[in-house]
Amino acid sequence: HLRAVVRGVGHYLPQRIVENSEFEESIDTSDEWIRSRSGIERRHFAAPDETTSDLATHAARNALADAGMEPDDIDAIILATSTADLTFPSAATMVQNKLGMTRGFAFDVQAVCAGFVFALSNANALILSGQAKRVLVIGAETFSRILDMQDRGTCVLFGDGAGALLLEAQEGTGSSDDRGILATDLNSDGRYKDILYVDGGVSTNTTGVLKMQGKEVFRHAVEKLATTAHTALEKIGLSGDDVDWIVPHQANIRIIKGTANRMKVPMERVIVTVQDHGNTSAASIPLALSVGKAQGRIKPGQLVVTEAIGGGLAWGAVVLRW
Ligand code: ACO
User: Fold this and answer.
1) What is 2-171's CATH superfamily?
2) What is the pLDDT of residues 47-66, one digit of tens each?
3) Of 42, 94, 182, 254, which residue is most buried, by most CB within 10 angstroms?
4) Catalytic member of 20, 249, 252, 277
5) CA-CA distance, 208 to 271, in Å (whole number)?
6) Distance of alpha carbon 282 from alpha carbon 91, whole angstroms
7) How is the chain split into domains, by residue range?
8) Which CATH code for domain 180-321?
9) What quaternary structure, including any partners, is listed in this protein's UniProt entry (predicted)?
10) Is 155 a residue of the active site?
């Protein structure tokens, strides 16, 4: 019974840290408003010449080092991003090249803030179907490039960064005690396009900025995240009681608390990094996994649930034993 088991994890954050107070100089906002509404205290912004594939490559190298592997040990790279360097080629093939990898295959996945969960699920499918033995799953974003820095309702919420997980095919027993990915649940519903989107793109010959109806997103988020996490757990006969760590998409502390509350999991069992990273979209879950492991909190054998929602709407959850 094949399982996609975590062999390594790593992350990278751009050097420049932007504190909430920096926004007070350019827009009508306050550190207190941003903290109390979102839980965010600071975020990292990439340097002007630093791209998504740069951040992703740093995170990938850190995950490879953690696993004690070389780039040519990898069969596939899946990069979740909505902010690729160019329209094409994929940012994943740029990472492949920067790593000096000339074998295997690489592609991007675009499911906005849910991108990492979608990428993990795809990596799991590649491994279970025997198409790849080792897959590097990366989430990387430069959301600072698609923000309207005059829109106080959105520009204070997002940040840049990257995280990576290295998955390897290993034999398990088929029980929920196995290490590796145990269950996934993916969803999308395009009727909700207008509550979270970028109002421009290649096929409309425009460049755009992020637009969001914050209250609407919030309302959908808590309900849909708790449901998808429960659905994934139920597939293997488990519940919130069995969970060691929820590692949620880091959008907003109020969404994170609301979801944990619905799942009846206390906040002591939730990894929270939103205060330091802001919302890094597809990068937020692998960043939180990497930080959680580095802090000595996430340990081998523990049951981890990741859940995320974003533009689309697209949402989902992955249950894995670390
Ligand atoms: N500073 C000060 N005031 C602000 C700011 C700001 N940065 N932004 C908005 N306001 C004002 C609004 O203009 C409004 O003023 P008004 O009443 O005079 O019109 C007031 O604050 C209240 O605004 P609301 O939108 O009602 O504030 P709310 O309590 O809903 O909080 C927030 C806004 C934080 C965006 C919240 O709705 C939220 O967290 N939504 C979820 C959105 C999210 O996390 N999206 C991430 C992308 S999707 C994802 O990753 C899950």
Assistant:
1) Thiolase/Chalcone synthase (3.40.47.10)
2) 999 999 999 999 999 999 99
3) 182
4) 249
5) 32
6) 14
7) 2-171, 180-321
8) 3.40.47.10
9) Homodimer.
10) no
